[in-house]
Structure formats: structure tokens, C-alpha cells
Amino acid sequence: MELATVLPVVWFGVIGFGVLMYVLLDGFVLGLGVLAPFAEDEAQLDHMMNTAAPIWDGNETWLVLGGAGLLAAFPRAYAIVLSALYLPVLLMLIALVFRGVAFEFRFKARRGKRFWGAAFALGSLLAAFAQGVILGALVEGMPLEAGKYAGGALDWFSPFSMLTGVAVVFGYALLGSSWLILKTEGRLQLIARTLTRPLVLVVAAFMGLVSAWLPFLDSRIMARWFEDGNFWWLSPVPVLALLNVLWLWRAAMREGRDARPFLLTLAFFVLGFAGLVLGIWPNIVPPSLSIWEAASPPSSQMFVLGGLVFLLPLILGYTAWSYRVFRGKVQADAGYH
Q1: How far apart, in whole angstroms, are the C-alpha atoms of residue 128 and residue 34?
Q2: Distance of CA 136 to CAs 156, 171, 336, Å?
Q3: Rg of the Cα trace of the chain?
Q4: pTM, to two decimals
Q5: Spatial distance between the Cα atoms of 172 and 274, rounded to a whole number of angstroms
Q6: What average pLDDT does the segment 80-93 reach?
Q7: First and final CA of the chain: distance in angstroms?
Q8: pLDDT recorded at residue 225
Q9: For residue 188, pLDDT beyond 60
Q10: pLDDT the model gives residue 289
């Protein structure tokens, strides 16, 4: 096979992997911010934030990898996405910066801890919502003419993108609550368990609403699932997602095996992401821009791929190492400096 055929597939996988890793790893930190108003006092919020304090900075490396990979391998797609989604992308970036500043300042502040706690919650909420809006706008499809974006600055604003924005907020909240079950004990873990079960129902309901809406969109995702008998070999994904919800529902209130709710929540996100990728393939910008049409020259892709061969194992290595070093329960009196 020619490089012009193979390399876009490789880079599609690399970018997809980077985005998925970001969603899984930074998603629970954003979820902690979404759940911050449920903390009973400032000490409990300290405890919540301390569970992520040693590792949260490195999570955003995956977002940078996905964005840089998109620019290098699919510059046409990068130009279209940034042109169409400039405002929600800008909101996401500002909110992430705001969240990061609030995270650090709250631990150092002698006064105003409540303000910075509220800022952490607000930044997390807005970043999660913006990411959901971006997802919804991509799934809904973008108007293209001659391979260029033909819509307006607010075409991303639609009932469907608002729905996916709220859905991602609740999804990240579920990641955050299951993370707290894994990392805490006592009163905070009990609150997390109490929140997890209704969050499972809400997230499952949003998944059902989004799936029911897809046939009314022009992004051709639903056609991908049902044309030429595709549903029969794609059906394991929704079946496993449904079983995953049932297992997660049961695991949320079962004492012991505290890792199981978090692992099942991660699996639920992986299955949802797999369903999305299977639905849009081989397009990188629905409804019609394929990975081969959007790809940069093979020489450019090979040049960047050479650097990725060294960079990706390094990122995976320090990510695995940091999570291993800081594994186990985080006590309420743990400090962050």
C-alpha cells in the first residue's frame, strides 16, 4: 500500500488516541470541579482536589498532542474546525487556564479560598460544556464548499450541540465521582457513592437522547451504522455499552473493590468514543471531508511521525509512572505544596 493511503490512517489513530486519553485523564479532574459545590466544607474540597493535585498537570499533554497532530497531519481539517468552532474552542481554552490558575491559587491563598474554589468549579464547568459543544458541532456536520468552511461564526450553536454540551458535563461528573470512590474513604467516599448512581442514570439517558437524535442529523453517522448490514458487526459496541451501564450501576454502591466504578466509567467512555469513530469513519470532518482529502503530503506526515516515535513512548512512560507513584488512597490530611 502507498504511504499516501496508510499514513492518514495512522495519524487518524494517533489523534484519536490522544483525544481519548485527554478525555479519560483530564475528564475526572474537570469532574471534580463540576462536583465541587457538593463539598460540605473547605476541608472536604481540599481533599477532593488533593486526589488529583500530583497528576493533573500532565493530563493536558494529550490535548496538545491531539491538536498538534491535527495541524501537522490534517491541516485542511484543522483550518475548517478552527474556523467553524473558534468561539467554543476559545471558551474552552480560557476556561482551562482559569481552572488551572484557580487550582494553584486556592492552595496558596490565605484569604479568598472560597472565591478560588468557586473559580475552580466555574472553570471546570465551562471547559466541560465547551468540549461537549465542540463534540456536538462535529457530529452534527459542517457545511463545506470546495473543501472550505461555508458556514457562519455561530453555526455551531444548535439544540443538539447544547444537548451534547450538558451531556459531557454530567459525563465528567460521573468520572469525578467514581474517581473519588477509588481515591478516598469515609464521608467523602460515601458522598461520591451517593452521587454516582443517579449520575449513571443521567449519563445513560443522555446517551440514549443523543443516539435517538442522530437519524435527524445530516452528518451521515446513522447511515454508517445501518447501511450494507453494518449494524450486525458494529452491534457489539452498543450492547457492551448497555451492559457496562448495568455493571456500573451495581458497582456504584457495592462496598469494597473501589476501583471497579472508575474502571467501568472509563470503559463506558471508551465504548462511546469507539461508536463515534465508527460512525464518522473515514471522515475527519463530517459530513464529507475524508482523512485522505484533508491529509498533508506524505513527506510532512513522515517527518512529524519520526518525532512522534520518540515522543509518544515518553508521554506514556511518565504518565504511567506518575499514576503509579501516587496510587492508593489519599487521606484527608494530605497536603499539596
Answers
A1: 9
A2: 8, 14, 37
A3: 20
A4: 0.92
A5: 17
A6: 91
A7: 53
A8: 66
A9: yes
A10: 85
Chain centroid to CA 335: 28
- Residue 49 phi, psi dihedral angles, 5° rounding: -70, -30
Name the average pLDDT for the chain: 87
Q: Tell me, what's the pLDDT at 150? A: 81
Which is more confident, 142 or 22? Answer: 22
- Name the pLDDT band for 95 (thresholds 50, 70, 90): very high
Domain edges within the chain: 3-325
Sequence-ordered list of residues with C-beta below 8 angstroms from that of 48, at least 6 positions apart, any chain: 32, 35, 36, 39, 180, 184, 188
Burial degree of 199 (CB within 10 A; 0-12, 13-18, 19+): buried
As a whole number, mean pLDDT of residues 16-36 equals: 92
Could you report the per-residue pLDDT of 232-253, keeping only the tens digit for each?
Answer: 777 788 888 889 989 998 888 7
